Each structure stands twice: as structure tokens, then as C-alpha cells.
């Protein structure tokens, strides 16, 4: 659809209550139904229980997948959960949001013999959900108190995993987070239909039940406390800061209603009590090609938007959202247009009316504009072209590389008392499961340093 270039385009139509209450509940229920007991046993029996299993190698946290699946088959849910959570203390959330189709399930040997791998993610969710429903005695206990206290900055996956690992080793941990709730992206950055029933907070409650971890929310590094103060006060510091900066779209962005960041839209939706109160445009355009773009686009549709289009500057293979996620978006009524880059936001007195794109192509391997343009009508334009690390609160004490914190394999930074992990650390893939592994490995490195 081509939009007029004038400010007198079709009036904006951003409003709440587009659907009946029952439809909101259906749209935002669990996107993928969990396995029943019978389904879990059947699926577990499909596993070959490989020695030196390639699926375990493909898991960033190294979960003993064959072992936890075997225990499901043996109806040993507690043992299965122990195998998962000892390697990944956020294994319940990772079972919901990990791109298993390109990690463990892609490595499954079943792919060589038939079309369908073992559904490892669903089995992991089955085991952790069943355990959390009836946890019984603690799976893990703390070691003897070390007398040392470590501060963790950021209560996202990396920070929480580090805190849990340190607590298991007997250290006291103080976790600082800028938000009103802990969880980071697990709480504020994931599509609502991926984590229903307040699961992020329920998993955190379990993680904190080991003891020795104090959470302090509404505390921002560089605002309420400085890195120098933390280094002076605590025995070690772990930085799990995530990416708090939002990239702009590289063109003029008018201060017009309807133009906003996709991450803010997703966070707002995650915290709202009544979906009917959240306004959405009738025509939504999402700029970007990653998971944030897909989550924002699909949720716009689920809120009642009639037309939702993701526009990406390269082809399908260039999108960081997996083929599975792209297919999920399209199945939910989202149109994906490739080979187009934004060149002008169209706005009138009431707000955004559309956005003009330049058609792109590859020329000798370089992305270029062809000279052709087109416009899409839109009441809402959501920017989802990536986030960036904000280094200003670190001062000059921590070395950066490519705009993120430089570390060694253990997470150690250029300062002897500071470690880092998760998205703020250079060289990662911006995956929840990888952030958990960063935190887990850093906890062991910090423990070794404190004992040296």
C-alpha cells in the first residue's frame, strides 16, 4: 500500500480496546502449549541418549540433555530438574525462549534419520515446570559462608546466574538493578505470550530461595551509585548491564505520536494488567529484522492492529530472527518486506501517517539503494533495529572493544576486581542462554580469585 506524502494522509487511528476481552485472553495465552505427561514420555522415548551427545555440545550452558530426558522417561522429575538447573539456573525461562531450533535441536541426531528432532525445549520446560509446581526440599544448598560479599549490577539473566552461582559457593551477594523488578529482558523484553502467568518472577523467587542474595531495585549505576564506590566497598563486582541504548533509524525522527521504540512497547505490554487498555495503531510498521521486531509485530497484531508489516533492509537470510520466528510472524498475520531501508517518516499534526522506504539491493557485496522508493501508511512505527551498550557509567576504568566490555573467557575485565557478562560483553550472540553461561562461568572465576 502506498501512502500519500502529505500531512493530510488518512487520520491516525491509535486506540485501545480494539478487541473483546475474551479475544485478548486467547491472543495472549501460552503461545506453545506445554507437553502433557503422556506426551512428555512419548517424546522422551524418542531420544537415543547419545554418548557424547551433540545436543549437549550445542547448548551454551552445557546441560546434560540425554540425562535429563532419560530421567523424564524414568518419571524422575526432580532428578531431571536437577540436571537442568545445575547447569542453567534459569532453565525454565530458557526452555521457553531459547532458539532451540538452531541450537540443541538442530544438533539432534534424529535430524539425520528423520525430519523431526527430539523436542528438547518442550521436554526441558516439562521437567522444570513440574519441579517448580512441587519443589519439595531445596535442590541446592549454600556452602559455608565465606565472609566475602560480591555486588552484581544488573538483575538480568547474566546477573542472576552469577548471583546464584556465588551464593551456592557461600558468598553474600547484593544485586542492583535499575528497574522496579528483577529479571531484565526476561521480565521486560520478551513477548507476553512466551512467558505467561508471571513465570519470570516465579523463577526468580526459586533462584533467590537459596539465600544469601539481596535484590535492590530502582538503583542505577552512574546515577545512584558509581563503579568506584562499588569497587571500594565490595570484594568483587560483576557487571550484567545489558544494552540500555536504543539505535536510531538513521534519518530524521519527528517528535510525532506513533513513532516509538519497540523495546518500550514490549516492556509496556509486559507490565500492563489489562491488555484492553493498551493502545495500538490500526496500521503498524516495524523496522528491523531481529527477535524484538518479531515480538513487537506479532503482539501488535494480537492487540488488534489490522495491518502489521516488518520491513528489513536485507533478505530473509540476513535477519537475526530465525526462520522459525519469521514463519511464526507470518502465521500471525504479519507481512515481512525485505530489501528496503527507511528514508523518511511521514507525519501530520495528529502524528505519524506513514513511512517512506528506499528499495535496496546488493552491489558487489555492498548494500545500496536502487533509487526506487515506496511508502507504507502507518499510525504507528516501531523502531527495532538493535540496542547498544551505554558505557558512560563505567568511566575510564574498564576497557571496551567494539563498543562493549572487553573480557577474557572467564568474564574478567581490565580491572582486577571487575567481571562482566551478558549482552554488555563483547563477542556474544545476545542470547539469554549465553548470558546465563557468562554469569555461571564468572561466578566460578570470582570465587577462585577471592580464594587466591
What number is the mean pLDDT?
A: 95
Query: How many domains make up the 3D coordinates?
Result: 3
* Content of β-strand: 15-25%
Number of strands: 19
The appropriate CATH architecture of the largest domain is 3-Layer(bba) Sandwich
Distance between the termini: 66 Å
And the CATH topology of the largest domain?
FAD/NAD(P)-binding domain
Brief summary of the model shown:
By secondary structure, the protein is an alpha/beta fold.
Description of the structure:
This protein is 34% helix and 19% strand. Helix 4 crosses helix 9 and helix 6 runs antiparallel to helix 9. Helix 16 links the parallel strand 10 and strand 11. The radius of gyration is 23 Å and the shape is globular. With 452 residues, the protein is an alpha/beta fold. The chain folds into three domains: 158 residues, FAD/NAD(P)-binding domain, CATH 3.50.50.60; 97 residues, Alpha-helical ferredoxin (Fumarate Reductase Iron-sulfur Protein, Chain B, domain 2), CATH 1.10.1060; 159 residues, FAD/NAD(P)-binding domain. The N terminus is likely disordered.
Strand-helix topology:
Blueprint: E1 14-15, H1 21-27, H2 37-45, H3 54-58, H4 65-73, H5 77-87, H6 91-97, H7 104-107, H8 110-113, H9 120-133, E2 149-153, H10 157-168, E3 172-176, H11 185-188, H12 199-208, E4 213-216, H13 227-233, E5 236-239, E6 245-246, E7 259-261, H14 262-271, E8 280-281, E9 283-287, H15 291-302, E10 307-311, H16 323-331, E11 334-337, E12 340-348, E13 351-363, E14 366-377, E15 380-383, E16 387-388, E17 400-401, E18 404-405, E19 418-420, H17 432-451
Parallel strand pairs: 2-3, 2-5, 3-4, 5-19, 7-15, 9-10, 9-15, 10-11
Antiparallel strand pairs: 1-8, 6-16, 12-13, 13-14, 17-18
Amino acid at each position: 500500500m502506498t501512502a500519500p506524502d502529505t500531512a493530510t494522509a488518512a487520520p491516525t487511528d491509535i486506540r485501545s480496546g480494539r478487541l473483546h476481552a475474551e479475544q485478548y485472553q486467547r491472543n495472549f495465552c501460552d503461545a506453545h502449549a506445554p507437553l502433557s505427561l503422556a506426551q512428555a514420555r512419548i517424546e522422551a522415548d524418542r531420544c537415543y541418549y547419545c554418548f557424547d551427545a551433540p545436543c549437549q555440545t550445542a547448548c551454551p550452558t552445557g546441560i546434560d540433555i540425554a540425562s535429563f530426558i532419560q530421567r523424564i522417561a524414568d518419571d524422575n522429575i526432580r532428578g531431571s530438574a536437577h540436571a537442568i538447573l545445575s547447569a542453567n539456573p534459569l532453565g525454565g525461562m530458557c526452555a521457553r525462549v531459547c532458539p532451540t531450533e538452531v541450537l540443541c535441536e538442530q544438533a539432534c541426531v534424529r535430524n539425520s534419520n528423520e525430519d523431526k528432532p527430539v523436542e528438547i525445549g518442550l521436554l526441558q520446560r516439562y521437567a522444570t515446570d513440574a519441579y517448580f509446581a512441587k519443589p519439595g526440599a531445596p535442590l541446592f544448598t549454600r556452602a559455608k559462608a565465606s565472609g566475602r560479599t560480591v555486588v552484581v549490577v544488573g538483575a538480568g539473566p547474566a546477573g542472576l546466574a552469577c548471583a546464584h552461582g556465588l551464593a551456592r559457593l557461600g558468598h553474600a551477594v547484593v544485586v542492583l538493578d535499575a528497574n522496579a523488578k528483577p529479571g531484565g529482558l526476561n521480565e521486560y523484553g520478551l513477548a507476553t505470550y512466551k512467558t505467561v502467568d508471571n513465570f519470570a518472577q516465579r523463577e526468580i523467587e526459586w533462584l533467590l530461595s537459596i539465600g544469601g542474595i539481596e535484590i535492590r531495585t530502582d538503583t542505577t549505576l552512574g546515577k545512584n551509585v558509581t563503579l568506584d564506590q562499588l569497587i571500594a566497598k565490595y570484594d568483587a563486582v560483576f557487571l550484567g548491564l545489558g544494552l540500555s541504548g536504543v539505535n536510531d533509524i538513521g534519518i530524521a525522527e519527528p517528535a510525532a505520536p506513533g513513532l516509538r521504540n519497540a523495546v518500550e512497547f514490549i516492556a509496556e505490554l509486559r507490565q500492563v494488567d489489562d491488555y484492553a487498555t493498551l493502545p495500538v495503531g490500526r496500521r503498524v510498521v516495524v523496522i528491523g529484522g531481529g527477535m524484538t521486531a518479531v515480538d513487537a509485530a506479532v503482539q501488535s497484531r494480537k492487540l488488534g492492529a489490522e495491518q502489521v508489516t516488518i520491513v528489513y533492509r536485507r533478505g530473509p537470510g540476513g535477519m537475526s530472527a530465525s526462520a522459525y520466528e519469521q514463519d511464526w510472524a507470518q502465521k500471525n498475520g504479519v507481512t515481512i518486506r525485505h530489501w528496503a531501508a527507511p528514508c523518511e517518516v511521514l507525519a501530520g499534526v495528529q502524528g505519524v501517517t506513514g513511512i517512506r522506504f528506499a528499495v535496496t539491493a546488493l552491489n558487489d557485496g555492498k548494500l545500496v539503494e536502487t533509487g526506487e522508493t515506496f511508502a507504507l501508511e502507518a499510525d504507528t512505527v516501531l523502531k527495532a533495529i538493535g540496542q547498544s551498550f551505554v558505557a558512560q557509567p563505567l568511566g575510564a576504568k574498564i576497557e571496551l572493544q567494539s563498543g562493549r566490555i572487553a573480557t577474557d573467557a572467564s568474564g574478567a575485565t581490565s580491572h582486577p576486581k571487575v567481571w562482566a557478562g551478558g549482552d554488555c560483553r563483547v563477542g556474544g550472540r545476545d542470547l539469554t542462554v549465553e548470558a546465563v553461561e557468562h554469569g555461571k562461568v564468572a561466578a566460578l572465576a570470582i570465587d577462585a580469585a577471592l580464594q587466591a
